[in-house]
Design goal:
mainly beta, 10-stranded mixed β-sheet, 5-stranded mixed beta barrel, 44% strand
């Protein structure tokens, strides 16, 4: 099926999580023929349209229901306008950060978004967002924040895209967000697994 490549998310080491949208609007996380993440040499670039043969994986753990194994494929074209093509294929959340992922996001003391079983598991782990406010890069250059009201702590997410971070992402920009895999630290007792909020790119 023809698939628009929408993201190349940094994983550990040289790993890359390749995101796509099929022509029927299905969100996909493209794995290599061995069922693993690709690395930096993956041929898929954002804006490419590929004709792919893939098989959906079984036994997936929500919210990560987008995984497919790519058997083969050929590049068919390049999108003339990636933003418009995405919006033709997939809906986008609009408004504040609370609109994301079925409204079940929680936030850590440092303001980083996450989902957990106790808060509720959303129906998907990838999506697109048109924010009503600009997102601002933190001093650590690794996170973006959605501004809150006076004296309220900002709420945000880690940046995991390949492109260099910019200081502000203007309001009205189309943004790709995702949830990392389930994880909890080994050295902290009583903390349930979480999927942390990520930003992988903008258009």
């Amino acid at each position: 099926m023809k698939t628009l490549i929408v993201s190349r998310t940094k994983m550990s080491g040289s790993g890359r999580c390749i995101g796509g949208i099929a022509q029927d609007g299905t969100s996909l996380r493209l794995l290599n023929p061995n069922g693993q993440n690709w690395d930096t040499s993956a041929p898929f670039q954002i804006g490419d349209i590929w004709d792919l043969n893939y098989t959906a994986m079984t036994g997936l753990t929500p919210p990560h229901v987008e995984d497919v194994v790519c058997a083969s494929g050929t590049k068919a074209a390049s999108a003339s306008d990636v933003r418009d093509t995405i919006l033709e294929l997939a809906p986008a959340w609009t408004g504040g950060i609370s609109q994301l992922f079925d409204g079940v996001l929680g936030f850590t003391a440092k303001g980083n978004g996450f989902v957990s079983h106790s808060r509720g598991v959303p129906s998907q782990s990838t999506g697109f967002w048109i924010s009503d406010k600009e997102l601002r890069l933190r001093a650590d250059a690794k996170h973006y924040d959605y501004p809150q009201g006076f004296l309220s702590q900002a709420k945000g997410m880690s940046y995991v895209g390949e492109s260099d971070a910019i200081q502000t992402i203007p309001s009205g920009t189309l943004i790709r967000v995702s949830l990392a895999r389930w994880w909890k630290p080994d050295d902290v007792d009583g903390l349930e697994e979480r999927c942390y909020l990520q930003l992988s790119g903008w258009y």
